[in-house]
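Risk register update: the risk of archive-format incompatibility is retired. Evidence:
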Amino acid sequence: MALLNRPVRTAGSARTGTVSRETPSSWPGLAMAAAGVAVAWGVHGLVPGIPMLTASVVLGITAAHLPGVRATVRGAGRPGLSLAGRRLMRIGIVLLGLGLGLDQVLRLGWATVAMVAAVVAATFLGTLWLGRRLGLPGDQPLLIATGYSICGASAIGAVSQVSGSDEEDVAASVALVTLCGTLAIAVLPLLQDPLGLSDAAFGRWVGASVHDVGQVVATAQTAGPDALGEAVLVKLMRVALLAPLVAAVAFSLRARRTGVRTESGRRPAPVPLFVAGFQAAAALRATGVLPAAALDWAHTAQELLLAAALFGLGSAVDLPSMARTGGRAALLGLGAWIVVAGVSYAGVLLTV
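Archived output:
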């Protein structure tokens, strides 16, 4: 199917190296993504409780169904929006590695490292199994399992790059994981006292069970600075497992698709280039050679790129199609939420 969607070149353009007039331009879609990011940034500025990435997904879905804009989203804007969802996502994930303080993560101790690894494995495998049993279409079980177990939309985007997932599956998974992560901001603080968690233990629980980094911060800060510090460190530990998980998924798919080649005629790499870039960025951060200003710039660029990518993915959502599997997806979201919250709670009790 990918070959059927490749741009057609004329004989003349093949000789000169120029693209024919039939090749659609990416600029209209990229301009729409940039406008969506600007609006999402404004929404986050007005309502800090709404993460910019969440706003970007919602705005993309809105644009795809808004009369007067819908035709452009599904027509002239589609090439650029798809490009944003793929290429900008990969660059943003590489920059995500610069926010990973491996030295800080290791200070929590090997018991906590083992706990987080167990939470990630149990959440990923349990959600994937439940999604298959519920009969969710396409790659939604794989993507939702990734989002719940690692870091929400960023992890979904990373895995979708190696699985070649349909844009609608990616967008639907991002929407579900984002919704459940947002609900955690309101629900988890209410459970701290009934569950008998100290501020530090509550922070670890939040870091091990909430999906997006912004949602972790918003949830943990309700219990004070000690909870917030523990939550961020545990969350960074989960993010550190993104590269191994994506590499494992890529290896598994590669083993199942023996003989499959990319459009260029080469076999797919066992470890995707952007995953290697993520690891290299994390290693560079660990050296301490980058000044704080450079890290701040990289964080801002990462947020903007991921926001543009998520706007592009959101614009591919077709709500009528989502409604047909909405009940099963909601059931999977609830089941996965119970798994990650329960396993992480048990892990925190064993390690504090």
